[in-house]
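Record minuted for everyone:
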Amino acid sequence: MHAPAAVVENKRMTGVRMDKWLWAARFFKTRGQAADACDLGRVESNGVRAKCAREVKVGDSLRIRTEGGEFAVEVLQLSEIRGPASVAQTLYRETDESRQARAKAAEDRKLMLQAGLVSENKPNKKDRRDRRKWLGQIHRF
């Protein structure tokens, strides 16, 4: 059988732009968000802060911080095309330590919600500003 059209074989391409790969692997909804994450230092490639134009190659180890948690992954395949989630998951392999850390963080969030330290209600303007400040997002007025 043929490989899905969304996955590029290693023979044809040696590297893909970081922001394109992150978008194709579905870590971010838009390529612009992936580029912003690189600019803010939330993406590391082989232990070095990655810029959005840096090439991702098969075998690279990436550390990616998103709202969903911090992912430590190894690049298995390259793609510039955003395909279905099932294909996107074949582009990388997440480390066991990363999975365990994200599961622990999710459990901690659940406990904080139960303890009343976090609200399920829609955040107000101050809450949103505090959250952006905590996440290190840039204010654009």
Summary: The chain has five helices and seven strands. The chain has a mean pLDDT of 84. The longest helix spans residues 96-115.
